[in-house]
TrEMBL record:
It comes from Xanthomonas perforans. Residues 98-122 are annotated as: Disordered. This is DUF4272 domain-containing protein. It comes from the Bacteria.
Amino acid sequence: WPDFLPRAAVQHRDHADPELATHLHGFVGYVSQAGDGQMTQPRYHLMRHVQRVRQHFTFEVDDAAFGELAQWAEQANAVCFLADGSVRDPHGRVLISQGEPAIDEQAQVPYPPDALQRRAQQ
């Protein structure tokens, strides 16, 4: 469990929770319609990433803990949905937004190391 997250302040769902699939279905819809709604390769990859989620956490974190959050998110292969309506990669770069903040061209949907290795071998 990450040190920066107090257990009492975290809501957690995993694949055993029947509500997770419903939540993720709605979130895929959100991602598909956010901003201009145009299907792009990054949007498609984010949608597929969300469809494969096995665990979902809801929490608030102090700005001072962003470095720890980024490190955890990278290890967990996680994206973050922020209060401003943006979806961000583990480094805080904007993958999808409602227009503001602007999408960051450097943002990347996270992949586990073995998936990146398979991709490089193709």
